[in-house]
Amino acid sequence: MLTGEQDNEEIIARVAALDIGKAELVCCARVPDEGRPGRRLQEVETYSTMTRSLLGMADHLRCLGVTRVVMEATSDYWKPAFYLLETAGFETWLVNAKEVKHLPGRPKTGKLDAVWLAKVAERQMIRPSFVPPPQFRQLRDVTRYRADLIAVRTAEKQRAEKLLEDAQIKLSVVASDIFGVCGRQMLAALIAGERDPAVLAQMARAAMRGKITALREAFTGYFTEHHAFLLAKMLARVDAIDADIAALDARIEQMIAPFTAAAQRLDEVPGINAVAAGVILAEIGIDMDRFPTAGHLVSWAKFAPGVKESAGKKKGKNTTGHGNSYLARVLGNAAVSAGRTDTFLGERYRRIARRRGSQKAVVAIGRSLLVIIWHLLADPTARFTDLGSDFFDTRIDPERRKRNHIRQLQALGYTVTLEPAA
Predict the structure, then answer these.
(1) C-alpha distances out from residue 130 to 92, 93, 96, 290, Å
(2) Using the 8-state DSSP alphabet, how is residue 311 labeled?
(3) pLDDT 10s digits, 76-132
(4) Which of 55, 82, 132, 231 could form a disulfide with 136 if both were Cys (CB 3.0 to 4.6 A apart)?
(5) What are the E-state strand segments in 241-383?
(6) Coil, strand, or helix at residue 306?
(7) Side-chain-side CA neighbours of residue 331 (13 Å)
(8) What is the rounded average pLDDT of the residues 273-289?
(9) Distance CA 342, CA 186 (A)
(10) Which residues contact 273 (CB under 8 A, 6 or more apart)?
């Protein structure tokens, strides 16, 4: 059976490709040969990655009439050239290096890589990676730095807890959060020189007052001046990071102000709070034209399993792959938070977790969140409406529910006879 398919084989007339390094880059430009129709001219030049040299390269490419410039995502070295050429008005494409595979038997140099990339680009055999607009790139820098600081703070807290274990102080066994108000007061007293377990235990407040006996045992150890010196430095670093995170939160709130409406719509989704909404907008932007459907967004974020099949058999594990780690982290946290709510997403998380485990449930709910996010951003008038936690019970086929109940009763040793109600 023959089916119609649109295949665009148009060759990009004037294209350039960059093989970028830290100190220099190789630029290959390919343009039509005006004297010999059907033939193409090729020019390969090496430029420094300094700004003055990049500006000269941009002027030269403009003189050649180049419209599209393609480059591989090499570390962070691509950013200066990409941003400069984007500002100069070129159609800049960032491509995944894995999609421009090095062919066996072909020598590999910077010049040959640039030529190969230009030939592949002019035939439109590659796809551009998603690069957000400048305002979202700046927001992304702040949100990602905030996530990195949180990781640093967590590591510093773990060091402090290990130091207490070294001193045989078992506060983390009794208190769920040793860096809460009571915990910090006790740690400050330790640093100040207080060693009496009874005095330290009496600093407990609220619910911890019921654990005073356990606290006395926890503070019976060998905490010395050596431990006090190190613990003071660790807590000071935690406090400094807390102040930096607060400053970043204020900056994010200021930068996200023009997109408050979109952030508020995302905030209505279970599991997504204001901070998570800011991270999501920083990573994917608000223009969903880049993703024609919700499936495209899910696939780009690697929340959809890949398909590997040969001779009618599926190959390998049904994995999703590695996508945007910052987006995956916030979606994973949102999925777990949604799983604790009495909502449709919460019930779906719990149903999947019971059958297939929590990791599968996180990915499934993360995918559902991405679909919801796409619809909310693609249509500014759309609002989130929860289907309710009883959606599965009220929509499942009654015959299927009947069969399930019969099997459950038979498993308990009953003989089941059904009669329709009057």
Answers:
(1) 11, 9, 10, 8
(2) T
(3) 888 888 899 898 888 888 887 766 665 555 667 777 888 888 888 888 877 888 888
(4) 132
(5) 309-310, 313-314
(6) coil
(7) 28
(8) 89
(9) 37
(10) 267, 337
CATH 3.30.420.10 fits 15-122, yes or no: yes
Q: How far apart are CA 129 and CA 363, in angstroms?
A: 23
Cα-based distances in Å from 163 to 156, 158, 295, 381: 11, 9, 48, 53
Query: Of 201, 299, 167, whose CA–CA distance to 307 is shortest?
Result: 299
Tokens matching residue 169? 């102080």
Nearest-5° angle of CA 296, CA 4, CA 302? 15
CB neighbours of 400 closer than 8 A, spacing ≥ 6?
A: none
| DSSP output for 101-154 | PPPTTS---HHHHHHHHHHHHHTT-S-PPP---HHHHHHHHHHHHHHHHHHHHH
Residues 6+ apart with CB under 8 A from 190: 169, 200, 223, 227, 228, 231
| CA pair distance 117, 314, nearest whole angstrom | 32
**Rounded Cα gap, residues 89 and 56, in angstroms:** 14
Place of tokens 């129709």: 37
The residue type at 301? A
200 within 8 A of 183, measured Cβ to Cβ: no
Count CB atoms within 10 A of the CB of residue 348.
21
